[in-house]
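Need tokens for this chain, all 184 residues.
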Amino acid sequence: MKKIPTIFPEVWIIEPDVFKDERGFFLESYSIKKYKDVGFSWNFIQDNHSKSRKNTIRGLHFQIFPGQVKLVRCTKGQIWDIVVDIRENSPNFKKWFGIELTEENFKQILIPVGFAHGFSVLSDFAEIEYKVSSYYDPKLESGIRWNDPDIGVNWKIKNPILSNRDKIMPFLEDFLKEYKNPFG
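Here are the structure tokens for all 184 residues:
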């Protein structure tokens, strides 16, 4: 397993060891021992799975305090995965990072608390599986607008398909006016 840094010191790309032969492939998509061996200490307690069609954008989502750490991978198709630093006191505040996650590259991205997450679907369909460090709580669910001009994410698609909820999420500046210290 490789642990690859990103522009954010807290966000990591994980490349699992993949064993391929004429029959197909095998990989350990998660091993608590291997993750602890490379310095990760989170315990994941829930797995989520979603399927979306081409040009869908989901995001930018997160949970406020205590938050959720996420380990995201694409099991079918291809997505453009986005992480945004939304911690006001961070030197990387409002910066974003994107990576293609595909069923062929097997890459995963580890996203800690204090970062918003979203993705756009580049293939006809995509399935995403992700582990989280705390249970979903609708009272803690939040997000920011996918097209916030202060952040300027390039989603790599035109004419996105959005949920009604994602269409009306607040801009980051408005969210932070309402929630002082949302991550504890």
